[in-house]
Design goal:
Chain A: One of its GO terms (molecular function) is 5-oxoprolinase (ATP-hydrolyzing) activity. By secondary structure, chain A is an alpha+beta fold. Helix content of chain A is 32%, strand content 19%. The longest helix of chain A is centred in the middle third of the chain and has 29 residues. Chain B has 17 helices and 35 strands. In chain B, strands 13, 14, 15, 20, 23, 24, 31, 34 and 35 form a 9-stranded mixed beta sheet that branches. In chain B, strands 3-2-1-4-11-12 form a 6-stranded mixed beta sheet. Classes of the chains: A alpha+beta, B alpha+beta.
Chain lengths: 662, 699
C-alpha cells in the first residue's frame, strides 16, 4: 500500500532556517545572546587561538565522557555517537571526530526546538531536550537519540551543547527497531519530537518513562540517557568557566570566527579547484523483506567558483519499506564526506562549512521522504547511498587538481552490514545487540596509495570493533573466525582496502538459539564504486548454514575454515531477513571493502605479488583482474605479465576474441 | 657506606644519581652511547665515583643496588630493530592483529591527524604472514575447552616457524587468561622443538580479556625480550667483574623495578621506564615535602610529559598505545602531550596563529640554535621575551642567537599578521601556556580529579619557564621547581628512590558481586603469585605492602574503573562496600547522577600490586639557611604576562640563593640546568632542600 499523507505531520518537516529568521520566530520568548561583526573582527590572534583550542578540548571531553558512561557496545566499543557545541541558534561550531552524520544533524533539532518550544513549555536554565524525530533533526533514524541543552549566561541562551548516540532498541515490530518487513514508520519506533526531559537540572520521571517504556532494553537506554546528560554537564561547566574568564562576548566572537574561518578556507579551496559538474548514481537492492526491486539516488554535483550545488533531481520516489531517509538524512549523508575529503585540514565547524553548500532535492523522494515513510534504517540506507554518490562526485572533483587529489578517497565500505542478535544471554538475561564487526569495512583507495584494509567507514573517523572475546563474553555466541577477505577491496592501480567476514554459532544460551535480524544490501550489485578506472569493491555476501554438524566437528578437534567445511544446508541470505538461529546453525557474514583507484592493469606487479602473499588478493584475482603472471614459486614473470595485460586491454576494447595467455 | 645508584639512559644523555645513608648525594651526566648503551652506563659510573671522590671499584663494592632505567626497549620498538618473531594463535583469528579492531588506523594520533582521515594508515604489520600459524584449539568464555589442542599440529607449526627464521615465538590463544592450559602446553612443545628459544605466552605477559591488545602486547614483548636479555646479561657480568656484588634492578613502566634476571621475560613492561623516572622522582620529593597530590610536568626540548601522583601514589593506567598498537600493560600513566620547547609556531591556511604539535625536534632545533632551523619555536620566543639569557643557556654550554630567533618570528608570524615583534612573541608564549593548561587539565580530569587539589611540579629544561603561567590557568596555588642536587638528573634520582613493584592480574569477567569465596580466591591466587615473585628477586625488603583493586564497570561499558579493594577477605557486606566505592569513583569521574546501578555491575579484572620497599632510601641534604636578602645579579626587560606587558625583572643566579630566600615576581632565576620565570603576582621561596616553591599572592 502506498504511503498515505498524514495531515499535521508537516510541522515536523524541518528545513535549515537562517539565524535572522530564527530570532524573529523566537522574538521575546527567550533571550538569545549575540555579538556584532565588529566584536568578531576585534578578537586578537592570541585570544582566538586560546579559546578555539579550549572549545576543541571541551568537545573532546564531551565525547570522552559519553563514551565512557554509555552502556551500549554500539557506543562504547564502536563509537557510534557524537557530540557538538553550537551557537545560540544551533549553528555547529565544533563537532567531535566520531559519527559525523549524527553531529551534522543536531543544528536542525536545536533550531526547531527554539522556534517551537520557546513559549510552551519554554526553555530555561538547566533544561535539556530529547529528540529522535529525524524529520525534525538530531539523528538520521529513530535509534539516533539526541539530547541537547541550552547554556544560559546572564539570562540569555549563550550556546547549546548536544550529544547523540545510537540506542540499541526503542521498540517497533522487530528487535533492534529495524522492522525489516515494515512498509511505513508505524511499523517502527514512533519518533519523539523534542521534549523537555531534564528540567532545571532534574530528570522528569514522567517524560523519561514515556521514552523508556517503548524499549526492549529500557535499563540500557536509561544508562545512555545519563551518559548524555553527563556529557552536556561536563561541557556546560567548562563553557561557563570560559565565559567567566574571557567574557561571553569574546567567547561568542571566537565561535563565530571559527565558523567564518572554516567557511573562508573551504571557499578558498573550492576556488582553487576547476569549475565543472560530476555525477553519480547509487543503487539500493530491496526496500524491505521480500522486495527485490532496485532503487536509485542520482546526484549531479556542480562546482561554480566557491560553491557546491548538490542536485538530486532524478532520484526515485520514496518507497514502502525502511530504507528512506528524511532531509536530515540527506544532509547527514553529504556532510561526512565534505568533512573528511574537503576539510581534512580545515576546522570541523559545520555551521560555517554548510554555507558553501546548496542542496536541490524534491520532497517525497527516497532521500528526502515525507511522513509516514519508513526510515528505520535511514542512516545506513538512503543516507549512506547519499554518502556514496557524494564520495564519487567529490573524488572526481578533487582528482582534477594535482595537489588536492591527495585527499580524495574512493567510496568506503558500500553499506552497513546490519546483523542484530536478540534472545537470552548466557547469564539468563534478555539481550539485544547489533553486531558491529562490519564497522571494520575497507576504506577507499587514494590517488597515491591503497585504501586502508579493515580501516573503517567513511562516516566515522574513529570507528571501532569489539574484540571477539568481548562479544563472546557479552553475548551467547562463539566465533569460528573473524578474518580479512581477499579480493573484497576494489581492484585498481591503488587497491581499495579489504573488508572482512565473521562466522559464528549461537553458544551457551539457555534457550539454545538466538533471534537474527539481517538488513544488508549490496548483494545484487556492488555499492562502493571505484574512481578514475578503479573497480568497485566486492558485494555483500551472507550465508546461513542450517542443521550443521558443527558441534561434532569442534568436539573432534576440528575448526572449519570455509563454508564447505562447515557443511549443513546452505541458505543464501537475502538483503532483508528476520529469522531464528538454532543451536546447530552457523551464520557467515562477509562485508564490503573500499573502491579502487585507477586501472588495475597499471598496478605495480610487485605490489600485486605482495597482496597475494598477504592474502589481500587471491592468486586468481591477481591473474584475471590485475593481469599478473606468476611462476611456480609465486614470483612475478614480467614478460608474461606484459603479454597478459596487453591481451586484457585488447579484450576490453573488443578488438579480438583471442584467449588470454595463462 | 652503602650506596644506591640510579642510572637513566635516554636517547641523548645518560644520567646517574648516587646516595648513601647519610644524605651525601651526587648527580652526573654523560652522553649516551648508542647502539651499545652499556658503554655509557659504565662511563657514567666512573664519573659518579669521581664526583664522590672515590674510585669506581670502591663505589661499586659499596653499592647495594643499581636501579636502571632504559629507553632501549622503547627505541627498539620504535625503530623496528627487534627480534624476528613467530606468532601462534587460535585457528580463525590470526587476522586480529591486522584488523586491529580497526582503531589501529588512528590510535595514538592527535586530533589534527585523526581529522585528516584520508591520510591515516595502519602501521606496518607486527608479524609478516609467513611467520604466523594458526593452530586447532579453542577455549570458551568460561574457560571450558571447546576444541582440544591439536598437539601434532602445534608441533608442526613450531617447526615451520623456526624454519622460516623465527628467533623467538609469541603465543596468544583465545581466552587463555581464563584457562592457560593450551598455551602452557604449546610452550612446552616449543621448548621440546627449539630449546633455548625465547618464548612468551599471553597468559603470562598480559592475562587480560581483549585478544587484540593481549596478542599485540605478547608479540612486542617477544620482539624486545631477547634483546633485553642480551643487553643485561653481559652488563651485569661486567659490573660483577668490576666488583659489584649488589643487585642490578631494572625500572618498569609500572613505576617500580624488578631484578634484572626477571626483566627480559616481561620486557614489554620496561618500555615506560624512562618516562616514569620523573613521576617517581616527583613522588619521592613530594613525600619529603609533604605533598599528597602532584601533577608532574616535564618539558624538555622535544617533548612535554605529564603524570599524576594522587594520595602519594603515581596514577597508573592499564593500557597504552605504541606505534598505533594497543598494549595491555599496567604502567604509570605518563602522557606525552606536547612538543616541548621545540614546538613550532605557524600560521594555518586561515591565517590563524598556531603553536605545535609539530616540533623542530633536536635537529635542526629552534632557530636560535643556529643549526639550520628557520621556523620560530617556543624556545626562540622564550629568548625574545627575555626569559632565557642567550649567554647562559644550559649553564652557558650553548650560545643562542637572538638575531636568528627574531628573523624567524618576524618572517613567519609578525609580518604576515601585521603584529609587532613583541606582540607576536608574547602571543606564542601565551598560546603555548594556555594549550599546555588545556592538555594538563585533560590528563587530570580524565583520571577523575580536579587540578585545584594539586601541587604542580615543573622540571626539565623548559617547564620552569612556563609553569607559573599554566599553573595559574589551572588555578593551581603552588608550584615546585626541583632545584636541589637532583635537578639535573631528576629521573635518575627517581630511579634510585624507587621500590620493587610487581603486579599480578587475573581477568575473570563476571557479574558483580560474585560469590565472596570466588572473589577472595582470586585475590588469594594473585597474592601467592606475587609472594613467589618477590622471593625470586633475592632482595631483603624493608617493608612489603599489597594493594588490591578490581576493574569494575556498569554492564557493557567499555571503560572499567579501577576500584580499590581492602586487602583482607571480604564477605557479602564487604563486597557491597566495594560496589559502593565503585559508584563513588564513577560519580567523581563523570559527575553526580551519572551512575546508574540498575544497569548492573560487572567485574572484569582482579589486580594486586606488591610493593617491596628497598633497604636504602636516598635522603636529600638540606641547603644552608639564608643570611640576608637575595641579591639579584642584574635586571633585564622581560615579558611574562600579557596583562602586564614588558617589565623590568630582577635576575637571580640560583647559586646565590639559600633556604628561606623569597623572590617577588617579575623575576627570573637562572640555574645551571634551567631558567625559572616568576611573573608579577607570584612569590618564589627557596625551601630547605633548595627547591623553588612558587605561590601566587594575587591572581
Amino acid at each position: 500500500m502506498p504511503v498515505i499523507p498524514v495531515a499535521g505531520s508537516e510541522e515536523f518537516a524541518n528545513r535549515p532556517v537562517s539565524p535572522a529568521e530564527t530570532r524573529r520566530a523566537v522574538s521575546d520568548a527567550v533571550r538569545l545572546h549575540d555579538v556584532d561583526a565588529a566584536a568578531v573582527e576585534a578578537v586578537d590572534p592570541l585570544t582566538y587561538e586560546v579559546i578555539r583550542h579550549r572549545l576543541t578540548s571541551i568537545t573532546e571531553e564531551m565525547g570522552e565522557a559519553l563514551k565512557r558512561m554509555s552502556g551500549s557496545v554500539v557506543v562504547t566499543d564502536c563509537n557510534d555517537f557524537d557530540a557538538a557545541i553550537m551557537d545560540e541558534v544551533g549553528e555547529v561550531v565544533q563537532v567531535g571526530l566520531y559519527n559525523t552524520q549524527l553531529a551534522a544533524s543536531l543544528d536542525m533539532a536545536v533550531n526547531w526546538t527554539l522556534r517551537n518550544r520557546c513559549r510552551r513549555p519554554g526553555i530555561g536554565p538547566g533544561d535539556m531536550f530529547l529528540c529522535n524525530d529525524p524529520w525534525v533533526g538530531g539523528g538520521l533514524h529513530q535509534n539516533d537519540v539526541s539530547l541537547f541543552a541550552p547554556l544560559f549566561v546572564d539570562g540569555e541562551i549563550f550556546c547549546w551543547t548536544g550529544a547523540v548516540a545510537h540506542q540499541v532498541d526503542l521498540g517497533g515490530v522487530s528487535p533492534g527497531s529495524w522492522s525489516v518487513a515494515g512498509t511505513d514508520v508505524f511499523w517502527e519506533s514512533t519518533p519523539i519530537p523534542p521534549v523537555k526531559i531534564v528540567e532545571g537540572g532534574e530528570i522528569r520521571d514522567d517524560i523519561e518513562d514515556v521514552y523508556l517504556r517503548r524499549s526492549r532494553v529500557p535499563r540500557l537506554v536509561a544508562l545512555d540517557l545519563r551518559a548524555k546528560i553527563g556529557a552536556n554537564n561536563v561541557a556546560h561547566e567548562r563553557l561557563r568557566a570560559l565565559c567567566q574568564k574571557y567574557g561571553a562576548a569574546t567567547v561568542k566572537a571566537v565561535m563565530r570566527r571559527t565558523m567564518d574561518d572554516a567557511e573562508a578556507r573551504l571557499r578558498a579551496k573550492l576556488r582553487e579547484l576547476p569549475d565543472g559538474s560530476w555525477s553519480s548514481v547509487a543503487h539500493q537492492d530491496s526496500a524491505r523483506a521480500g522486495d527485490r526491486e532496485i532503487y536509485k539516488i542520482v546526484l549531479n554535483l556542480t562546482k561554480t567558483g566557491d560553491r557546491l550545488t548538490f542536485d538530486f533531481t532524478g532520484t526515485d520516489p520514496q518507497v514502502d519499506g525502511l530504507i528512506n531517509c528524511t532531509y536530515t538524512g540527506l544532509r547527514g549523508g553529504i556532510m561526512p564526506v565534505v568533512l573528511t575529503m574537503l576539510c581534512g585540514d580545515i576546522p570541523w565547524a559545520p555551521g560555517g562549512i554548510a554555507r558553501c553548500l546548496d542542496i536541490v532535492s524534491e520532497p517525497g523522494t527516497i532521500n528526502n521522504c515525507t511522513f509516514p515513510a519508513g526510515i528505520g534504517k535511514a542512516s545506513v540506507a538512503s543516507a549512506w547511498a547519499t554518502t556514496n554518490v557524494t564520495t564519487e562526485c567529490l573524488a572526481g572533483l578533487l582528482d582534477s587538481h594535482p595537489e588536492h587529489r591527495q585527499r580524495l578517497m574512493s567510496a568506503c565500505c558500500g553499506t552497513w552490514d546490519f546483523a542484530l542478535l536478540a534472545g537470552v544471554d548466557q547469564r539468563g538475561g534478555g539481550f539485544v545487540t547489533m553486531l558491529c564487526d562490519s564497522m571494520a569495512g575497507g576504506l577507499g583507495a587514494r590517488a597515491d596509495s591503497d585504501g586502508v584494509d579493515t580501516g573503517g567507514l567513511a562516516v566515522i573517523p574513529m570507528g571501532r570493533v569489539a574484540d571477539v572475546e568481548m562479544n563472546e563474553f557479552a553475548f551467547p555466541m562463539l566465533y569460528l573466525w573473524r578474518r580479512e577477505e581477499p579480493d573484497s577491496g576494489g581492484a585498481g592501480r591503488f587497491r581499495g582496502g579489504v573488508g572482512a567476514s565473521s562466522c559464528f554459532i549461537p553458544y551457551d544460551s539457555p534457550v539454545g538459539g538466538v533471534h537474527l535480524v539481517v538488513s544488508a544490501p549490496g548483494k545484487a550489485l556492488p555499492l562502493a564504486p571505484g574512481v578514475s578506472g578503479g573497480l568497485p569493491a566486492g558485494t555483500q555476501y551472507d550465508v546461513l548454514l542450517r542443521s550443521t554438524a558443527i558441534r561434532d566437528a569442534l568436539a573432534q578437534g576440528r575448526i572449519p575454515t570455509s563454508l564447505d567445511e562447515v557443511g549443513g544446508e546452505r541458505e543464501l541470505v537475502p538483503v532483508h531477513l528476520e529469522t531464528g538461529m538454532g543451536p546447530d546453525d552457523v551464520y557467515y557474514t562477509h562485508w564490503q571493502g573500499g573502491g579502487g583507484y585507477g586501472d588495475p592493469l597499471l598496478r605495480d606487479p610487485a605490489a600485486v605479488a605482495a597482496d597475494v602473499a598477504a592474502h589481500k588478493v587471491s592468486r586468481r584475482g591477481a591473474e584475471e583482474v590485475y593481469g599478473v603472471a606468476f611462476d611456480e614459486h609465486g614470483h612475478v614473470v614480467e614478460a608474461a605479465t606484459r603479454d597478459r595485460r596487453a591481451a586484457l586491454r585488447r579484450r576490453r576494447a573488443g578488438l579480438e576474441n583471442e584467449e588470454v595467455p595463462a | 657506606m652503602a650506596h644506591v645508584i640510579g642510572i637513566d639512559i635516554g636517547g641523548t644523555f645518560t644520567d646517574a644519581f648516587a646516595a648513601d645513608e647519610t644524605g651525601r648525594v651526587a648527580g652526573v651526566k654523560t652522553p649516551s652511547t648508542p647502539p651499545d648503551f652499556s658503554q655509557g652506563f659504565l662511563a657514567v659510573l666512573d664519573e659518579l665515583a669521581a664526583a664522590l671522590e672515590t674510585d669506581t671499584r670502591s663505589l661499586l663494592a659499596d653499592t647495594d643496588y643499581i636501579v636502571h632505567g632504559t629507553t632501549s626497549t622503547l627505541n627498539a620498538l620504535v625503530t623496528g630493530d627487534v627480534a624476528t618473531v613467530g606468532f601462534l594463535t587460535t585457528r580463525g583469528h590470526a587476522d586480529s592483529i591486522s584488523i586491529m579492531n580497526l582503531e589501529g588506523r588512528y590510535a595514538g594520533l592527535g586530533a589534527d591527524e585523526v581529522q585528516d582521515m584520508v591520510r591515516t594508515n595502519k602501521p606496518a604489520a607486527l608479524v609478516p604472514p609467513q611467520l604466523i600459524r594458526e593452530i586447532d584449539e579453542r577455549v570458551d568464555h568460561k574457560g571450558a575447552v571447546v576444541v582440544p589442542l591439536d598437539e601434532e599440529g602445534a608441533r608442526r607449526a613450531v617447526r615451520e616457524l623456526v624454519d622460516a627464521g623465527a628467533q623467538a615465538i609469541a603465543v596468544s590463544l583465545l581466552w587463555s587468561f581464563r584457562n592457560p592450559a593450551h598455551e602452557q602446553r604449546v610452550g612446552e612443545i616449543i621448548a621440546e622443538e627449539a630449546a633455548g628459544l625465547y618464548v612468551a605466552l599471553s597468559s603470562d605477559v598480559s592475562p587480560r580479556i581483549r585478544e587484540y591488545a593481549r596478542s599485540a602486547t605478547t608479540i612486542m614483548n617477544t620482539q624486545v625480550g631477547p634483546r633485553l636479555r642480551d643487553y643485561l646479561q653481559p652488563l651485569e657480568a661486567e659490573l660483577r667483574a668490576r666488583g659489584f656484588s649488589g643487585s642490578l634492578l631494572v625500572m618498569q613502566g609500572s613505576g617500580g623495578c624488578v631484578d634484572s634476571g626477571a626483566a627480559p621475560a616481561r620486557a614489554i613492561t620496561t618500555i615506560g621506564s624512562v618516562l616514569t623516572g620523573g613521576v617517581v622522582g616527583c613522588m619521592r620529593l613530594a613525600g619529603e615535602l609533604g605533598h599528597r597530590n602532584v601533577i608532574s610536568t616535564d618539558m624538555g626540548g622535544t617533548t612535554f610529559l605529564a603524570g599524576l601522583v594522587v594520595d602519594g601514589e603515581p596514577v597508573s593506567t592499564t593500557s597504552t598505545v605504541l606505534n598505533q598498537y594497543q598494549l595491555s600493560v599496567p604502567m604509570v600513566d605518563v602522557h606525552t602531550i606536547g612538543a616541548g620547547g621545540g614546538a613550532i609556531a605557524w600560521l594555518d591556511a586561515g591565517h590563524n596563529l598556531r603553536v605545535g604539535p609539530r616540533s623542530a625536534g633536536a635537529r635542526p632545533g629552534p632557530a636560535c640554535y643556529g643549526e639550520g632551523g628557520t621556523e620560530p619555536t617556543v624556545t626562540d620566543v622564550d629568548l625574545l621575551l627575555g626569559i632565557i639569557n642567550p649567554d647562559n643557556f644550559l649553564g652557558g654550554r650553548k650560545k643562542l642567537s637572538r638575531e636568528l630567533a627574531e628573523e624567524a618570528v618576524r618572517t613567519h608570524i609578525a609580518e604576515p599578521l601585521g603584529m609587532s615583534m613583541d606582540d607576536a612573541a608574547a602571543a606564542v608564549y601565551a598560546i603555548q601556556n594556555a594549550q599546555t593548561a588545556d592538555l594538563v587539565r585533560k590528563v587530570v580530569v580524565t583520571s577523575g580529579q580536579d587540578p585545584r587539589d594539586f601541587v604542580l611540579y615543573a622540571f626539565g629544561g623548559a617547564a620552569p619557564m612556563h609553569c607559573a603561567s599554566y599553573a595559574a590557568d589551572l588555578e593551581i596555588g603552588e608550584v615546585v621547581v626541583p632545584l636541589g642536587p637532583t635537578a639535573a638528573v631528576f629521573s635518575a634520582y627517581g630511579l634510585a628512590a624507587s621500590d620493587i613493584v610487581l603486579t599480578a592480574e587475573l581477568s575473570s569477567p563476571t557479574n558483580f558481586p560474585p560469590p565472596p569465596e570466588t572473589f577472595n580466591a582470586a585475590f588469594g591466587q594473585l597474592r601467592r603469585e606475587l609472594d613467589a615473585q618477590l622471593s625470586e628477586q633475592g632482595l631483603k625488603f624493608a617493608s612489603v605492602g599489597y594493594r588490591n583493586e578490581a576493574d569494575i564497570r556498569y554492564t557493557m561499558q567499555l571503560a572499567e574503573v579501577e576500584t580499590p579493594v581492602p586487602s583482607e577477605e571480604l564477605d557479602e557486606a564487604g563486597l557491597e562496600t566495594v560496589g559502593a566505592a565503585f559508584g563513588e569513583l564513577y560519580e567523581r569521574l563523570y559527575g553526580k547522577g551519572a551512575g546508574f546501578s540498575e544497569a548492573g555491575l560487572q567485574l572484569i579484572t582482579y589486580r594486586t600490586r606488591a610493593v617491596g620497599g628497598l633497604s636504602i632510601r636516598p635522603r636529600l641534604a638540606e641547603v644552608p639557611p639564608a643570611e640576608g636578602d637575595p641579591r639579584p645579579t642584574s635586571s633585564r626587560r622581560v615579558f611574562l604576562d600579557p596583562r602586564h606587558g614588558w617589565q623590568d625583572a630582577a635576575i637571580y643566579d640560583y647559586r646565590d640563593l639559600a633556604a628561606g630566600h623569597e623572590l617577588k615576581g617579575p623575576a627570573v632565576v637562572e640555574a645551571p640546568t634551567t631558567t625559572v620565570a616568576l611573573p608579577e603576582g607570584c612569590v618564589g621561596r627557596v625551601d630547605h632542600l633548595g627547591n623553588l616553591v612558587i605561590r601566587y599572592t594575587q591572581a
